[in-house]
Each structure stands twice: as structure tokens, then as C-alpha cells.
Amino acid sequence: MKKIILLVGIAISAIACKNINKNVFEIDGEIKNYNSQKIYLDELLLSGNDITIDTTFTDKNGEFEFKGSVKQKGLYRIRTQNNNNYFIILDNINISLIADIKNPFDYSVSGSNETNILVHLIHKIVANNQEIDSIQKQYLSLQQQGTNDSILNAYQINSNEKANQFINDVRNFIDSTHSDLSAIFAATLLNPEKDLPLIKKLTARIQKNLPDSKLGKEFIEKYNNIVEDIIGKAFIDIELPNQKDQIIKLSKQKGKWILLDFWASWCKPCRNENPNVVAAWQKFKSKNFVVFSVSLDDNKGKWVDAIKADHLDWATHVSELKGWNSSVCKDYYINEIPTNYLINPEGIIVARNLRGEELMEKLEEEINKPIAKSNK
């Protein structure tokens, strides 16, 4: 009996010691169908310069463990070699994670209420993307079959309505959630110009609640200096190679209405928006309207394949193939994509970030205006 009491006492002591130590974290978990392979623990930053703070291997059963310490709570991910990402909010606490390599977005976490909030948000994002992707695939299939415009328009309207409803859900989430880091994660899905009051409200909240957070400081720095208003200013010329390595200049299109569109093959929101851009081009190309597409790809093959797959049939496509390091990002304040600018025939930027029906409405409004005479 004394031996049993002694063992119980040792166990309680060990648990007590583990709970008393508030300066370390432990993450244990299982990734099914991912046995004896390397995994990474990354700290996530808005800049994209994520930091790998630890690596380990799963055992023969897919089980793993990370131990360490963080200075402040932050947004992290557990990443596999095939780039499955399991996002968590990490503090010096104990967390358990269960995932399956075959279902990359379906995972569960215990020990962290904030991470559960984040996981629920991610599940909604994935479900929304899958629904819109399905609609867009049907749209493209019907388009290739020569389906009439009224049916195609109905699909596009449905897609736009789904996207708008999702963004409204994101706004409501940011405004109501108690998880500041999850709110930051959600805010990256918004257009900061259109949601400026909400962004400013969240910025003040982050300043109050997360004054020492690295991610919080990045968020405040980014959104305290929201893009300079360049509406009404002349465009800055772009001179980059196209798919055939021929140099193409934006200035060669001056005298036309230009939609300067920044996108990439790897950007799902861009790909979802492409049918709207195609529809606008098809409707207005006979009215002195062109699309000038600037890709932030870094893989030429994927860029060219996406142009073909999405039926981006205009001639003006360019890319440095340097991703976010493209020189045009600074000139046009590109910190997210898709981003676009509408430029009038005199070379003046008249609108920014036009999406879906809004793009069509703005083109109808602007193209039907008399062209102002140049003073030159």
C-alpha cells in the first residue's frame, strides 16, 4: 500500500511540476498516414518571412512531439514535407493535435481554445473556397461547351454572391471573436480600403491587447500606413517580359482604357476572380478597353498554364517571375493579390480593386463618359 501511495505521490508531483512550469510549451500529436517523416514548427509573420523554430520526425505511428518556449503568444503552424499546414495559436501551454495527411485541412486540436476558434475559421475558409471552385469549374466547362451568356451570367452571379456572403461572415467574425490572433488571420482576407473602419478598429484592439506580439506589431505597422491614395494620379510605367520573353510596356497602351491587373497562378482568389476579368474584356474590348496582366508568379510553366486554363486571351501578360520580389510591387503598393487599377485613356488612375459586378458597373460608367481633352 505504501508503495502504491508513493507511486501516486510521484505521479501527482510530476503533474504538478508540469503544470507549475508556465514558461514552456509541449505539442504532442499524430499525423495519420505520415510515418517516420520530418515535420516543422514555424512562426508565421505577415511579411511572409516565416521562421522555422524547430523540426522533428514522426515515429512509425505518425506520432510526434515538440517542446520549447515562446516569449509571447503567436500564430504558428506545424508543416509537413509536402506542405500540409496545421495552424495553431501557441503560448507556453500543452497542446494536442490530430490530423491525417490525406485530409490536409481537416485537423483537430485540444488544450487551446484560441486554436479551436482558428481551426473553425479555417474550416469555413476551406469550405467557401471549395464551393466557389466548384461553381467556377462548372462555369468554365459550360463556357467551353458554348453555353449561352444568360446561363453563364447566372453562374457568375452565384459565385459573386457566395464570395460576398463569405466576406460578410469574415467581417462579423473579426468584430465578434475574442481571439485577437484569429482576427488578424481573418483580416488578411479583407480589402483594407473597403473595410478601413473595421481594420482601424482591429488595429486599436491589437495595440491594446497584444502590444508585445511580433505579429501584432507587424499588423499595426502594415495597416497604420494603408496604401497611399493614388487615385487621380498618372500611372507608373511597367516594362517587363511576356511569356515569349519579349519586353512589353504599359505605356504602349496609353490612349485606351486599361485594367492593370496583378495576379498569380498560385493565388486562388485571383483565379476565382479571373472569370469576371474575362467577362469584362469580352464585353468592352471593342470599346478601346484592354487588360494588362502582371503576374507575381515565380514559375513560368505554371504562369503560362494558368493563362491558358483561365482563358486570359488578351495579348498583354508580363512577369518578372520573382514572386513578391517583383519591382512593380513597390510602385503600385502591392501587398496582396488580386489587386487592380483602372486607368483612363489619358493615363490617369480612376479606380482601384474593382471586383465582380462592381468592375462591370464601373466600366459601364467610365467608358461611356466623354474623354477629357489633354492639355498637352
Helix content: 40-55%
User: Using DSSP, what is the number of strands?
Assistant: 15
How do the helices and strands follow one another from N- to C-terminus? Answer: HEEEEEEEEHHHHHEEEHEHEHEEH
N-to-C CA distance: 101 Å
Judged by helices, strands and strand pairing, the structural class is alpha+beta
Cα radius of gyration in angstroms: 25 Å
Most strands sheet = 5 strands, mixed
Taking pLDDT < 50 over at least 5 consecutive residues as the criterion, the unreliable ranges are: 1-20
Mean pLDDT figure: 86
Given the C-alpha coordinates, what overall shape results? globular
- The percentage of residues in β strands lies in 15-25%
Concise overview:
With 376 residues, the protein is α+β, with helices and mostly antiparallel strands.
Overall description:
The chain is an alpha+beta fold. Helices cover 41% and strands 23% of the residues. It contains ten helices and 15 strands. The strands form four sheets. Strands 13-12-11-14-15 form a five-stranded mixed β-sheet, with helices on one face. A hairpin with a 7-residue loop joins strand 2 and strand 3 (51-57). Mean pLDDT is 86; it is low at 1-20.
